[in-house]
Amino acid sequence: MTETTAIAAAGPESSGARIELGHAPMDAIHREFYDCMDALRGPGDRAQSLLALHEHLLRHFAQEEHWMRETAFPACACHAREHEMALDVVAEVRRRHDAGDADIADRLAEELPQWFAVHAAAMDAGLAEHLRTGGAGSAAAHACTAT
Ligand SMILES: [Fe+2]
Ligand SMILES: [Fe+2]
After folding, report:
1. Which ligand is nearest to the Cα of residue 33, counting in written order?
2. What share of the chain is helix, strand, coil (3-state, %, to 5)?
3. Which pTM value belongs to this model?
4. CA of 100 to the centre of ligand 2 (A)
């Protein structure tokens, strides 16, 4: 994480910090993610909020993976694997919610922001730095070390 990474305190309606990484298009997508989480915690239709979250994540992750491919970002494969795992979880939550598990959306609303905070710090921050510097930054420092 760089000195330009700022973790701003969340508003009272949100749980956890809202992470800003200093790359405006990525920060805009991340604000959409927080809005989806607020909607999921809100009084609206849960199935609709889960669908909106799923659609958002498909677009969010596809955009980041496009940026990674476009700029030959070295951590592309492991970053994309994390996206894939999160999408699998959201798909399973939707399936279980539709099957009558009334509590599953609450658990997702509690746990997904925690996953996102780690993902943003470990994966998105490196990509944001790479994009800000036109690929001339320390992308190699963020290369995947997973086996
Ligand atoms: Fe992201
Ligand atoms: Fe990501």
Report:
1. 1
2. 65, 5, 30
3. 0.84
4. 30
